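# nightly structure sweep
# worker-07 picked up a monomer target from the shared queue
# config: single-sequence mode, recycle default, output format = structure tokens
# input follows
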Amino acid sequence: MSMKTKRAVSEKQKQALNIVWGGKCAAFRFDPAEFGRKLHIDHVVPLAEGGSNDFGNLLPIMDKFNLFKSATRFPKEMEQSFLFLAAGRRNEVERVYAKLTHKPTPIPSMKRVKESQREQIIDNLIPTARWDLEKTKALVNGWLTGGMNFIKYHAMEFSKTYRQCVMKLTNLCLYDKDFQGIKTA
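# output follows
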């Protein structure tokens, strides 16, 4: 994904990088929040020096480190090391970014969903800021099995309200108030 003409890194790019790097600083491998700091997305080679918004040039690093660096370049060995780190996770970041920017195709009717589609639906899920992947998969799997009854009786297992579960399914284009689960033959 190359975006040389665009200056700012998009929110979806930031989200993809943070998901792949686990919310940790790529340079120091820790969560900056533990130290009262934030993550910034750094252009290893600054845009002013010919760098790009390509995932092979972007890393999440601690804000203080990024602000100290500003628009200058890292020492050559460090820059090469960071470019190597970014390149090592580039394909993974691009896959997550593609999922984040992909609009799910609405299923015309939940009544027509078949058991054979369960795995495909679950494989296309990604974590979000409010829903980790494990809870999202459990919610969707339960929904496909039990429909509305599942949500009514199991929302608290996800530390979520009934409304939050319905909204998550709505955002995934899976919600249907009359759905009672996949019918097995």
